[in-house]
């Protein structure tokens, strides 16, 4: 069985008799070359997840979180400086978004944030992190 790398977890609760009770854990993980969203009825930490207990496994399509790289944005240097922080989109809500009217909502937000970073980079401010550009994979 392939090894999984847990990227995100979040616990979900539901109201039962006016009290909130644990319902399940939402899990985003990487396996082989894909990213997946799943549920577990058990409480899971970000480091230990029994992949035998995962249900509702959904492969998250790249288009859902990684928009095409448009002209006008800055491409990040490759390789990145060692002390760089790479912000990645949170995919924990993908299960609710995938059948909505906006299944690419996360990718749309990534693109909007990159556009804002481009504006801030043209008008730098000392208390805002330096923007190096966007990592580009497969165009």
What does this structure look like?
This protein has 139 residues and is an alpha+beta fold. It folds into 2 domains: 4-59; 63-122, no CATH class. Helix content is 16%, strand content 28%. The chain has a 4-stranded antiparallel sheet with strand order 1-2-3-4, with no helix packed on it. The mean pLDDT is 91.
> Which parts are unreliable, with pLDDT below 50 for 5 consecutive residues or more?
none
Rg on CA atoms, Å = 18 Å
- State the distance separating the first and last CA atoms: 31 Å
The ordered H/E elements are: EEEEHH
Instruction: Indicate how many domains the architecture comprises.
Output: 2
Anisotropy-based shape? elongated
Percent strand equals 25-35%
Number of helices: 2
How would a crystallographer describe the biggest sheet?
Answer: 4 strands, antiparallel
Number of strands: 4
> How do the strands line up in the largest sheet?
1-2-3-4
The percentage helix is 10-25%
Task: Briefly note the structural class of the backbone.
Answer: alpha+beta
Arithmetic mean of pLDDT? 91
């Amino acid at each position: 069985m392939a090894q999984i790398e847990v990227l995100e977890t979040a616990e979900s609760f539901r109201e039962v008799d006016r009290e909130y009770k644990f319902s399940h854990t939402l899990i985003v993980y990487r396996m082989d070359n894909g990213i997946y969203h799943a549920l577990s009825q058990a409480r899971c930490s970000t480091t230990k997840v029994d992949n035998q207990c995962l249900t509702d496994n959904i492969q998250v399509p790249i288009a859902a979180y990684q928009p095409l790289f448009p002209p006008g944005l800055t491409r990040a240097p490759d390789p990145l400086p060692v002390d760089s922080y790479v912000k990645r989109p949170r995919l924990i809500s993908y299960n609710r978004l995938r059948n909505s009217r906006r299944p690419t909502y996360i990718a749309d937000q990534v693109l909007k944030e990159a556009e804002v970073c481009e504006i801030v980079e043209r008008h730098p401010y000392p208390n805002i992190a330096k923007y190096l550009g966007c990592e580009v994979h497969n165009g």
